[in-house]
Amino acid sequence: MGKQEDPKSLDDSNSTHKPDTSTVDVPVATNMAIPSIPSSLLPQPSWFTAKRLLAVFCVVNLINYVDRGTIASNGVNGNRRTCTKDGTCSSGSGIQGEFNLSNFQDGVISSAFMVGLLVASPIFASFAKRVNPFRLIGVGLTVWTIAIVGCGFSINFWFIATCRMLVGVGEASFISLAAPFIDDNAPVAQKTAWLGIFYMCIPTGVAFGYVYGGLVGNHLSWRWAFWIEALLMLPFAVLGLFMKPLQLKGFSHTGSKKPLTSPLTACPEEAVLNCSNGLSSTREDPKDGSKGAPSNLNELARFWKDLKMLHLEKTYVINVLGYIVYNFVIGAYSYWGPKAGYYIYHMKNADMMFGGITVISGIFGTLAGGFVLDRMTSTISNAFKLLSVATFLGAIFCFAAFCFKSLYVFIPLFAIGELLVFATQGPVNYVCLHSVNPGLRPLAMAMSTVSIHIFGDVPSSPLVGVVQDGINNWRVTALMLTSVLFIAAGIWFIGIFIHSVDRSNEDSENQISDADRARSQPLLKEKSNEPIEVPVESS
C-alpha cells in the first residue's frame, strides 16, 4: 500500500482485463481491493511469525520432555525400600520409596501417561477437521497443566498413575498437531532442519529433566518438581486458548473450497467470527446435499476411511515400524539409564552424568540429522538412507560402550552412539509428514505416536524391569536392550528400496502450494482499515 506501481505492469493489467491463471483463487493485480468485504472481516495476520511459532512450540515440547526426564530422575523417582541381612531397613526415597513400589510398578508409572496419549491422539486428530487445531492444542495444554498439579498431590500408586494418564491426554493434542504447523511454515529448503530443531527438544528436555529432577527432588521434594512444571506450562496453555487461532494447511472449518492465503493467516474470510472463537462452522458443502452437523456415524466412517488410506501407504508403514523398534530402546534408555549407570559404573551423580551426555549428544545429533538431510536434498529415499546408517552406527557405539568396565571409556563411546541415534529425529518425522497428503498429516502423526508408544516404550520400561528383576545384572540388561537397535536399522534399510512419492503437495481441501505461500502476504503486518491486498512478486 502506498508503493509506486510499475507502469508496465499497470498497462499490461489494463490492456488484458484478465486475471493471471497461474495461481488459484488469489487476486494478482497489485492494490486491487476485494469488493464488498470490510477489512475487519478479512483474514488478519496472526501475532505469530514462522520463527515465533517454532520458538513457542519448541519451549512447549521442551517442557513436555523435561517432565519425562523428571519422573525418571533419581531425585524424583528415587529408590525402593531395602533391608539388609541383619534386619536394618532403609526408608527409600522419591516416588518409589514413598509408595514402596516394585521395579515393575515403577515402570508402569513411567508408561501410564502413554495410555491417555494413545487414546486421545487419534481423537484430537479427528477433531482437527471440525475444530481449529490451534485451539485444540490450547485445550490439551490446559489438561496437561491440571494433571501435573495432581501428580504433585499424589497419595498412592493408583493416584499418581491416574494423573500420569491424564498428562498423556493433555500431551496428545500437541504431539499430533504441532509438527504439521511447523512443516507448513518452515522455509521450503529447510523443512527437515526446522523439524530437527523441534525434535531436538526431546533429548534436551529429557536431559534437563534428569538434572532438574535431581536438583529439585534433593533440595525441595519430588512433589515440587511437578508443581514448578505446571507453572512453566500455564502461560502456553492460556496462549493456546485465547490467542487468535492459526489455520492448518489442508483443513477447512467452514465448508469453503478456497485455499487459505497463508498458513499463518488466522482464518479464511468466511470463518473469521467462528475461527476467532476456535470453533468450526457446522454447515457442510452444499454439494453434499446434507444439512447440519454430520452424524457421529459419518464421523466414524470418515475416520476409518482415513485410517485405511494411511495404512495402505507402504512408505509410511515401514517408517513407523522402524520407529517402533527404535523407540522401544530409547524409551527404556530414558527411564532406566540413570539407574543402570548408577549400578554399573557406580556413578555418584548418575542424573547429572546421563543428563549431560544426553543433552549434548541430543542437541548436536538431532540438529545434524536435519541439516544433513537438507544438504543431501530432502527426499523420502534419502531420509531412509540416513535413518538406517545413523541407527546402525549408533547401535555399534552404544553396544561397545556397555562392554567396557571403565567409566572413562564408556562416556565417549556412549556419547557418540547417542549422537548418531538422535540424528534420526528430523528424518523420521519428515517421512511421516511427506508420505501422506496434507489432510492426513495430523492422523499420520497421531497414529505414529500411538504405534511407537503402544508397541515401543510402553512395554519396554516394564519389560526391562522384569528382565532386571530376573537376572539382576544391569550390564547384561543394557546390552540386550541396545542390540534391538540393529533391528530398527534393518527395517529402515528396507525403506530405501520401496517406491516412494512425496505427497505433501497433493490436492487436498484448502491446501496451498509452497509457490502460493511464497506469494502470500508477509507474516506480520500492521492492521489497517483499508482493504487487504495480496501482492504478487515477479518470478
TrEMBL record:
CDD domains: MFS_spinster_like
Location in or out of the cell: Membrane
Every Major facilitator superfamily (MFS) profile domain range: 53-507
Family that this chain belongs to: Belongs to the major facilitator superfamily. Spinster (TC 2.A.1.49) family.
Any one Gene Ontology cellular component term annotated for this protein: membrane
Recorded topology in the membrane: Multi-pass membrane protein
Residues covered by region (Disordered): 1-25, 508-539
Keywords: Membrane, Transmembrane, Transmembrane helix, Transport
Domain of life (superkingdom): Eukaryota
Name of this protein: Major facilitator superfamily (MFS) profile domain-containing protein
Transmembrane segments: 108-127, 134-159, 194-212, 224-243, 316-336, 352-372, 384-402, 476-498
Stretches with biased composition (Basic and acidic residues): 1-20, 514-530
A GO molecular-function descriptor: transmembrane transporter activity
